[in-house]
Amino acid sequence: MFFLLCYAGVNLSCFLLDLLDAPSWRPRWKYHHWSLSLVGALLCVVIMFLISWSFTVISLALASLIYYYVSLKGKAGDWGDGFKSAYFQLALRSLRSLGANQVHPKNWYPIPLILCRPWGKLPENVPCHPKLADFANCMKKKGRGMSIFVSTIDGDYHELAEDAKTACHQLEAYIEYKQCEGVAEIIVAPSMSEGFRSIVQTMGLGNLKPNIVVVRYPEIWRRENLTEIPSTFVSIINDCIIANKAVVIVKGLDEWPNEFQRQYGTIDLYWIVRDGGLMLLLSQLLLTKATFESCKIQVFCIAEEDTDAAELKTDVKKFLYDLRMHAEVIVVTMKSWESHVENSSSSAQPDDSQEAYTSARRRISAYLSEMKETTEREGRPQMVDGKQAVVNEEKVDKFLYTMFKLNSTILRHSRMAAVVLVSLPPPPLNHPAYFYMEYMDMLVENVPRMLIVRGYRRDVVTFFT
């Protein structure tokens, strides 16, 4: 009986230690393993004395003799951790029970895949942007969830395998320092595009695969003349669309608030396309954090001038009510491209975005002229990012104009918003990657903090029925 009680006491102590071994408790409890085990054993001894002191003395004597014999004759060995083995088996069983079928929206949790590699250069020994973990914590549902931090190293795997291990250890230390639940992965590939393509296809197991890709917006590409960024940026977005991953592009990451910087004002959603409710879900997740809990949600619906604004507002309010979400609905009318073409001769009203729009049109026109000259000089078909294509200049003008009007609307209504969420337009076919970066720059012009969101082919919120 004594040995059974001691065994139960020691194991109970170790179990309590494992429960308390969370990241926030680890500094306090990491040196108390033996003390907790000893307390459990002493409690068992006290219980034995209360039952029968004579039997307890005999049991202690026998236990001492056995311990002395084993210490003299026994061989040292590493038997591992029984609890870790049990946890491993439990994790495998849980993973098999999840299967690979689609998760019901009620049980859906964001599992962000965070691309840590910056578009420029970070200081030495800094594996990730300091604000990325803060943003990852904002995406957790009820404080639960896992983040996957990944980065790529350009080069040959056989030559850079050790460098990748070192970088992975640095990234793991960063995640632990930021107290973010997540894992780190480093991929060696010939280029960033190829590395990300491998990641988005293979990362995860079953239903524990990442479902949202988080990327920092490359604000420095024009300033530092990084000409390879546009094609890489477009490639990442297209890969996410093909792999059916949601995308969140963070603009203004340097200004993203941490947990101690409380925000006031509004969280403004410019809801343009159906995205399965991801944008609405992200806004609700932001409200659950202390940083944004004082904010209110505004949903802006973009409509053309001939749309019935009152009917649209009623429909959106009913939709939000069915989702049990509280938000103010505002319908904003925007002049269509056709109306703009018809009235192009009339003088345009002064606008904060007008100068940026004019400059973007001038740069795109110069790029198109250079493409045509190259085609005529070399006597070959027009090429777009290495592929033969025909660029429709009218569609280019239409896409840029749409981004210009949307940016003007955002600046007019959401200049003081805590954060703006807007739908991500997919890269148009046969448009050079350089043009797409011009469109995106036009969209984010003068907006300090923005999340550009693209959902995927499934709902992530449930309706009230």
Automatic annotation (TrEMBL):
UniProtKB keywords: Membrane, Transmembrane, Transmembrane helix
Domain SLC12A transporter C-terminal: 130-251, 260-464
Cytoplasm found in the keyword field: no
Transmembrane annotation, as ranges: 38-70
Residue ranges occupied by any Amino acid permease/ SLC12A domain in the UniProt entry: 2-89
Presence of the UniProt keyword Transcription regulation in the record: no
Gene Ontology cellular-component terms listed: membrane
Source organism of this protein record: Aegilops tauschii subsp. strangulata
An MF annotation (GO) of this entry: chloride:monoatomic cation symporter activity
Predominant cellular place of this UniProt entry's protein: membrane
Protein topology in the membrane: Multi-pass membrane protein
Stored InterPro entries: AA-permease/SLC12A_dom, SLC12_C, SLC12A_fam
Subcellular location: Membrane
Pfam families: AA_permease (PF00324), SLC12 (PF03522)
Protein's name according to its UniProt entry: Amino acid permease/ SLC12A domain-containing protein
